[in-house]
Amino acid sequence: MSALSWVLTALGVWGLGWISLRHWKKMVSLDARLASGDVTLLQESNVEIEEVIRAPQGSQLHHQQMLVSMNQQK
User: Fold this and answer.
1) What secondary structure letter does DSSP report for 47?
2) Domain residue ranges in the chain
3) How crowded is residue 55: how many other Cβ atoms within 10 Å of its Cβ?
4) H-helix or E-strand spanning residue 21
5) Tens of each residue's pLDDT in the chain, 74 residues
């Protein structure tokens, strides 16, 4: 029984380490892509846009799509 608990503990520690390393690598990759201005980030399904910093005045973000409201003069 003791060997089984050591194996389960080792698997748990290895799993947590793997998840931590994967998360860290993704964050480093994301920082590098943001710094280089990679526009493909906008098309990825796992990236959520919460704030638009450089957009025309009056722009709003709806359902992860930027809409610009413009006054049309007739």
Assistant:
1) -
2) 2-68
3) 13
4) helix 2-36
5) 699 999 999 999 999 999 999 999 999 998 898 889 888 887 787 777 777 777 777 776 666 555 566 777 76
Whether 48 contacts 64, CB under 8 Å: yes
- Report DSSP state, residue 37: T
- Give how far the C-alpha of residue 25 lies from the chain's centroid of Cα atoms, to the nearest Å: 12
Residue with tokens 């060997």: 3
> Do 57 and 68 contact (CB within 8 A), yes or no?
no
**Rounded Cα–Cα distance for residues 70 and 22 (Å):** 43
Q: Give the total residue count for the chain.
A: 74
Percentage helix, strand, coil for the chain under 3-state DSSP, each rounded to 5? 55, 10, 35
Angle among Cα 54, 59, 63 to the nearest 5 degrees reads 100
